[in-house]
Design goal:
Blueprint: E1 30-37, H1 56-59, E2 67-74, E3 81-88, H2 93-96, H3 109-118, E4 120-128, E5 134-136, E6 143-145, E7 150-154, E8 173-175, E9 180-185, E10 191-195, H4 211-219, E11 253-256, E12 266-268, E13 280-283, E14 288-294, E15 298-300, E16 302-310, H5 317-326, E17 330-339, E18 359-369, E19 372-373, H6 380-385, H7 387-392, E20 399-400, E21 402-407, E22 414-418, E23 445-451, E24 460-468, E25 478-479, E26 493-498, E27 504-508, E28 518-522, E29 533-537, E30 543-549, E31 554-559, E32 585-592, E33 598-599
Parallel strand pairs: 7-12
Antiparallel strand pairs: 1-32, 2-3, 3-4, 4-5, 4-6, 7-8, 9-10, 10-11, 11-12, 13-14, 14-16, 15-20, 16-17, 17-18, 18-19, 18-24, 21-22, 22-23, 23-24, 24-25, 26-27, 27-28, 28-29, 30-31, 31-32, 32-33
This protein binds MU-OXO-diiron and calcium ion (3 copies).
Length: 603
């Protein structure tokens, strides 16, 4: 259906060379500008950002910290106006306050409250700027979701005894969402967002002596002593010794409806509880909804949920309510990947096996459906709330940190970023397998799979690695079979997105090759499959997140610029320059066109 030339569109730019500049660097012929950054006003009455005088009340009306996922929900059929929905994954207090005002061992209550307000999500109305890119416009949809926003827990585990606390004896009402990493825009115009490293906010897991409960806390990495941010000093819900179940109320996929600023956001228990990197939807052949999500931890798993009910097309309030309810009733699966090459040919070096590819078959192992558990020794409720432990017992494949997973709207295959896993093959740990073929994997890889009969409801699939990342000059890398002297080096893939031609765009976090992180594009079809080209680089210490690629705008979230520094020694002064503090911000990129109008990305 697609001529081989067609897939080349969308990636006709000259690659940006790897660099360590404290800047966003885009290809020749492209322009870029910050759309919004930490502290900029979101809600009416928000004060102008003042680094030296920040307050919790101001922060609750301003753009939060450390933007990660970015989704555009169109407000009109032309797509010129949109709601930009952004995750604020976490706070880096050493960058958020003047050095002489912040003591990491003794934060003030106001500083902690600022951090609560800087977490969560933002909804910001944006429109196309005449010259190109996006600009913020005042809008009635603007919203901040913070640690204090009320959420409804829904699905088969809602109301469970494991979810009840002294503040919420119903087990159905939670305040806040935190560590929202990546996410996805649903076909019905809502946004799914993954609560990822929720564990780090809790303290005193060691107070729990019951061995079953203690093992659950251990498997989810809950800290034994004080938490890094010391929130437990100001609200007992962060103290496991006082509120042992509050931590079970995080680690979910949340859904917010940006079209209704008064709606109560939802936590979907049917999708399981783990360190959700993201969640993305694909409609099955019979009109149901599949959701893919990875658990971003070394040696953790890839999951899929398939609804029982059918999707109602459209974005009316009625359709949105119906479709949101689909994610409360269905079957949760975990993935097993089986290689097709002899184990003796998978030696952990990354050398291709004799059939020329890291590839094979796979199956989706059911864990629970509604109130029925398929895992011996686990009730359905336990499967949903302690999903990792259930998946440990069924032979799921331990992966190299599953990050973003997204279906390709053009070819129908599903793509997953496996960011890295330095522990692969270490003493006492799993050695390389064909789906995770390098021991001490520092640069990560990108996996693609095709569900049987192209149907997202199938319980079997075929898979292969598209990229084994790293320095193309190194023998342990693979670029979809494309000549390696014609590709950009790429390391630690994290978020994935697609342009209208089905080309894969990949943002990176933690470049192990010594240059800054960035955004890359790669065709997945035809003669150019595997030709990775770097589209942009981000400033010093920053991670590139949230890519959105439309026909006239590319959006990238610049997260944690100057990460290894502090406000006393910021290391990055992006985006304001001079001796300013770095500020995580969203950047829009466009192609310079004629007559002052933006060009078409890829033409
Ligand atoms: Fe928050 Fe898995 O990156
Ligand atoms: Ca093979
Ligand atoms: Ca991520
Ligand atoms: Ca990351």
């Amino acid at each position: 259906r697609h001529g081989s030339g067609r897939h080349r569109q969308g990636i006709d730019f000259e690659p940006v060379a790897p660099n360590t500049a404290d800047a966003v660097t885009v290809p020749d012929g492209y322009e870029q500008r910050v759309v919004i950054g930490w502290g900029d006003p979101v809600l009416p009455g928000a004060p102008k950002f003042d680094f030296n005088a920040q307050t919790a009340a101001a922060q609750a009306k301003q753009f939060g910290y450390n933007n990660d996922f970015v989704g555009l929900v169109p407000l009109d059929s032309s797509g010129r106006s949109s709601l930009m929905v952004v995750n604020h994954e976490y706070t880096a207090e050493v960058h958020m306050f003047p050095a002489d005002q912040y003591d990491p061992d003794n934060p003030t209550e106001e500083q902690v409250r600022i951090a609560w307000a800087a977490h969560g999500m933002s909804v910001v109305q944006v429109t196309r700027a005449r010259e190109g890119g996006l600009k913020v416009v005042p809008g009635r949809y603007n919203r901040r979701i913070t640690i204090n926003t009320e959420f409804e827990l829904r699905g088969p585990a809602a109301g469970s005894d494991h979810l009840k606390t002294s503040a919420d004896p119903s087990g159905r009402k939670v305040f806040g969402t935190q560590n929202n990493c990546a996410g996805g825009v649903t076909p019905w115009g809502t946004v799914l967002s993954g609560e990822e490293n929720f564990n780090q906010y809790f303290a005193n897991a060691s107070a729990v002596s019951d061995p079953v409960a203690a093992e659950r806390l251990r498997r989810y990495g809950l800290p034994s002593g004080a938490s890094r941010r010391k929130w437990e000093r100001f609200d007992k819900r962060w103290d496991i010794a006082q509120e042992p179940n509050e931590c079970n109320r995080f680690g979910w996929v949340v859904e917010i409806d940006p079209n209704d600023p008064n709606s109560t956001p939802v936590k979907h228990t049917a999708l399981g509880r783990f360190k959700h990197e993201a969640a993305n939807v694909k409609i099955t052949k019979d009109g149901r909804v599949a959701v893919y999500s990875g658990d971003d931890e070394r040696f953790d798993y890839i999951y899929k949920f398939v609804s029982n009910g059918k999707y109602k097309p459209g974005r009316s309030a009625h359709a949105r309510r119906h479709n949101m309810s689909l994610l409360d009733d269905g079957t949760l699966y975990v993935a097993r990947f089986t290689g097709d090459s002899p184990a003796s040919e998978i030696d952990g070096s990354g050398t291709l096996p004799s059939d020329g590819e890291f590839d094979g078959s796979g199956e989706w192992i059911p864990l629970a459906s509604g109130n029925r558990s398929f895992v011996p020794g686990f009730t359905a409720e336990e499967v949903y709330i302690f999903t990792r432990l259930a998946a440990d017992t069924v032979g799921a494949t331990k992966m190299d940190r599953p990050e973003d997973i997204e279906p390709n709207p053009v070819n129908g295959r599903v793509y997953a970023a496996l960011t890295n896993n330095s522990d692969r093959g270490a003493a006492g740990k799993e050695a390389a397998d064909e789906a995770n073929p390098r021991n001490g994997n520092r640069n990560g890889h990108v996996l693609e799979w095709e569900e049987a009969a192209g149907d997202a409801a199938s319980t079997t699939f075929s898979w292969r690695l598209l990229l084994v990342c790293g320095d193309p000059a190194s023998a342990d890398t693979y670029f979809g079979g494309f000549p390696k002297d014609q590709v950009s080096p790429i390391s630690c893939p994290d978020n994935v997105a697609f342009d209208g031609y089905g080309n894969l765009w990949i943002s990176t976090d933690g470049n192990a090759l010594g240059s800054n992180d960035g955004l890359f594009a790669v065709p997945v079809e035809g003669a150019n499959r595997g030709q990775v080209k770097q589209f942009l680089t981000v400033p010093i210490g920053a991670e590139a997140c949230g890519p959105v690629v439309t026909e006239d705008v590319v959006l990238v979230a610049v997260q944690h610029p100057g990460e290894d520094g502090s406000s006393a020694d910021p290391q990055s002064h992006w985006p304001d320059g001079g001796d300013s503090q770095p500020r995580p911000s969203i950047v829009s990129v466009w192609k310079r066109g004629r007559h002052g109008r933006p060009g078409h990305i890829g033409r």
